[in-house]
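lol ok so funny story. i was supposed to be doing the assay writeup but got distracted and ended up predicting the structure for this chain instead. priorities right. anyway since i did it might as well share w the group, maybe its usefull for someone
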Amino acid sequence: MGRTSNAKQKLIDSIVDLMWERSYGMVTIDQICQHAGVKKGSFYYFYKSKSELTLEALDYFWEANVREKLDSLFSPTKSGVQRLMDHADFKYEWTREMKQKEGKILACCLFTVGQEMCNVDQDLRNKVNDYLTCHQRYFTSAVQDAVSEGEVKTDDAPALATCIYSCYEGTFARARIANDPEIMRGLKDSYLRILGISAQVA
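and the output, tada:
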């Protein structure tokens, strides 16, 4: 009787929570079930493996937590440069609030799954790569529009966007390793340097 859609959602929510708190490899099926308050038999009623649950959970995480926020931050109603500035500001505040709430900076489940499983699970690697590619497209669109608006000069907007996106990934990784959200404060200036824009102009 416990095998309800509510139980399935609890499993999805639980693995997302646990992957943020720990890592994919450290999370066991027993821990997922305990966190969800769901019997192990119900887990195997819905999923054949932790990998299968994770594939569905990443889809849910993207739609429930990522897409809408990115659509807002990178709204085409704003200039290309402003979209990137808003992203930098948001990520700094988000990281700072996470540290205050959790006592530490948690790892993004997309990054952790991708890093841990890229050479082990082809389906998970493809899933994460698809979402990171989608994420980077927001940056590419912003840079392309900034070029069209005359705010940025480059003959290769996608390459410049890749540099900015890599800067974001690296800065967040450094902040997490140091458990210091203030490292994210410099993200906006880093974006501006890569774009070739003076902070005073921005």
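The radius of gyration is 19 Å. The CA atoms of residues 7 and 14 lie 10 Å apart.
back to the writeup now i swear
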